[in-house]
Specification:
The structure is a homodimer of 304-residue chains. Chain A is of the alpha/beta class and 304 residues long. Helix content of chain A is 46%, strand content 17%. The first copy, chain A, has one domain: P-loop containing nucleotide triphosphate hydrolases (Rossmann fold). The interface between A and B is large, with 63 and 63 residues.
Chain lengths: 304, 304
């Protein structure tokens, strides 16, 4: 039997498959070193998803996980995480074995498209496949190291970036869904809850951000974006409600200066609300871990 | 010379090219019937882009253009225009010659992915190429008819949807860029300005939305998302500044009930600011038309 040598087209196609498989292995090896992978999703833009991610990272790092928290800014066309964590103008170092994340406050490791752009004005005019490729590279070629937590900040919507993140990262601990209370926002966030379910990831819960504003002069509370929308969706969709974060101008100022508000204004009602949300997320994750351990224990006992 | 008949693969490929060219012709014919095509873009999400689009449509329709204004909601994964214009639960009618837009207030013709989804919870889990295909179909297969204005509301970012809209629509009159005043937002909006320039479309100007909040009880103004960011970008990037719209809880309420605030609360400072912005946009467009006419006139005179 004669063995036909592959044509050039066949060889290119085989090489591509082999490269993709090698990247899959690197991605899995890299992600296996990280204990908990948490995705922050919203559906609608401008609801404070990146603010929640940045503050969650700082909260975790300040609770016995310093130097063991990473943040992947998966918003390729509109990256804002570096600004919020005060690590702008940094560059990713490329070493022999791969790219090294930038180091933020409390040793938080940050990777963002922002680090690869020559200036603020430079747009990333990329269609979906290219954005997905960038995210897969950030997951597979970056030396994240041994981490307790990786937080992934997604851009709005349920398109390429969200799909790639959800399909590429193995064993996602859960998805935090952020919304503002308005009805218009609820419409889009419901889609995000269904999306998460369809991709078989657990919903850690819904955060209602920008919930009510207290006038700093007279103390009157105004529901600028209405109120209660997050809780309503959580009830309707049967997922946990994590809490409300009041609208506070200091949150925006802190994001602009790159000093997360739970550090900078740790006594503010928003910071107090945020810490309660973090505690709920931790409880769920630890509960799941305990559950898994019990299950493993039970399985190993049955095997005896 | 013998003529080789095409292989099956070659035939499929030829058919695809022919179909694409036929769609291009339909798209051009459809767009040529619309006098002014305006794109509303932001870069960052949640800055009120759809609110601006919906209110701009109503403002134009109420100024001698009733029944001659269309809105394309190009946010495929997070459509909110139908909710804001009070035309939810409608369906697109498919006639013999194509799809018919839904009819909103003042005869505004609306096309949105929302009309094609079975429920609010249904996510559109589509990668870029599919989203682009949907937008091209909305532009080419919908019987928009003879319109004075088509407003295109883009999702956040400079990815597939934005690229497809900017590359598919011929003779875009201009792009309105919406931002909130924060520095974090400015970072992303600068990219949107560069994006527009790279795609050779004129920037009509920048709108600063959610600019300052006046306490309804004591009248104290608080800059919740800081202030002046829109004007700053406009100056830095050398594009027109269209104006500031103050944050007003009634805008959010009106969006939720589907009654645009410039109608529902026409005396509010936000509505007054908005009407000034519309006037500036109209002046620029009419100035360009006059400029073009003068130029044509000059050209035809030179040709004499």
């Amino acid at each position: 039997m004669s063995v036909r040598s592959p044509t050039e087209t066949e060889q290119v196609s085989r090489d591509r498959v082999a490269e993709r498989e090698a990247q899959d292995r690197r991605l899995k090896a890299s992600m296996d070193k990280i204990k908990q992978k948490i995705v922050v999703l919203s559906g609608k833009g401008g609801v404070g998803k990146s603010t929640v991610t940045a503050n969650l990272a700082v909260a975790l790092a300040s609770q016995d996980h310093a130097g063991r928290v990473g943040v992947l800014d998966a918003d390729i066309t509109g990256p804002t995480i570096p600004k919020m964590l005060g690590v702008r103008r940094l560059r990713l170092d490329v070493g022999e074995r791969g790219m090294l994340p930038a180091r933020g406050p409390l040793g938080i490791r940050v990777v963002s498209m922002d680090f690869l752009l020559p200036s603020d004005e430079t747009p990333v005019i990329w269609r979906g496949p290219l954005k997905s490729m960038a995210i897969r590279q950030f997951l597979s070629e970056v030396l994240w190291g041994d981490l307790d937590f990786l937080l992934v900040d997604l851009p709005p919507g349920t398109g390429d970036e969200a799909l790639t993140v959800m399909q590429s990262i193995p064993n996602i601990a859960g998805v935090v869904i952020v919304t503002i209370p308005s009805e218009v926002s609820q419409l889009v966030v419901k889609k995000a809850v269904t999306f998460t379910g369809q991709l078989k990831a657990p919903v850690l819960g819904i955060v209602e951000n920008m919930s009510g504003f207290v006038c700093p002069k007279c103390g009157t509370e105004t529901s600028i974006f209405t109120t209660g929308g997050g809780q309503k969706i959580a009830e309707e969709m049967g997922v946990p409600f994590l809490g409300k974060i009041p609208l506070d101008p200091r949150i925006c100022e802190d994001s602009d200066t790159g000093t997360p508000f739970i550090v900078q204004h740790s006594d503010s009602p928003s910071a107090v609300a945020f810490r309660e949300i973090v505690a709920k997320i931790m409880k769920t994750i630890e509960g799941k871990e305990a559950g898994m351990l019990t299950q493993e224990h039970a399985t190993s006992r049955r095997d005896d």
